[in-house]
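ARCHIVE CARD
Drawer: 12
Card no.: 0347
Subject: one protein chain, sequence and derived structure
Cross-reference: see card 0346
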Amino acid sequence: MPKIIKNEQIVDDDWQVLTLAEGETPASLTLPAGPLLLPLAVWLARRDEVAGTHPQVGVWLDSDEGPEALAADIDRLTVIGVNFPKFTDGRSYSSARLLRERYRYTGEIRALGDVLQDQLFFMRRCGIDAYALRADKDLDQALAGLRVFSDSYQAAVDQPQPAFRRRNARPAA
């Protein structure tokens, strides 16, 4: 069974990430049993069918798809994946942050695609809490990399106050 990093632990991944093959349509995609992570196009075309037959369902957004497409369905989704088609494409960082801050999504946000150890700390700062690393990467090493920095100066999803505000809020000794 494949493994992912979720909530700073290495865990088994029960989810099947489905993709559309060339020439395949959302209507023709076969939906297997079990927890599914669907492409946005499949969810939009078949949401009522999927929600009625799969108690655990998620949607993944490609880097050129915004989270506003899921705004009305946010409470129906257990997982939302954000795809990084290559490590230099950072648009999914913005999608994750919008999901947490604008849409108040509290479920799992999973990084998919070309996910590398060097990115995990920054992904966590944007609200991503699960990481499906590339198959050629070491999960234990990546997990250790999440703990390299003990604090951040800037505000972000994981720490809404910048360091100077946190320091000024502490009582004087």
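Annotation on reverse: The chain has one domain: 3-169. Strands lie at 3-6, 9-12, 16-17, 36-39, 57-61, 79-84, 108-113, 130-131.
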